[in-house]
Model the fold of this input.
Amino acid sequence: MELSRINIYGRLRDFNVLASILDEIFSDEKDLNKLITAWQALKKDDFTDDKTANEIAKIFFKELNLSDE
Done:
């Protein structure tokens, strides 16, 4: 796994995204590419890694009907 993917995985774990969810995404190249594209778009808008991870985590929680607490 390249360094940027490890960073994305770790940052999302820091924002309480379950490893099982991330493992599913990272095992599917199509889903992973969507995640990377979203990550890069937020970074292009000058989001920090933490802010980017937080925003993506919020989307996961909303889409999967999970509580972020």
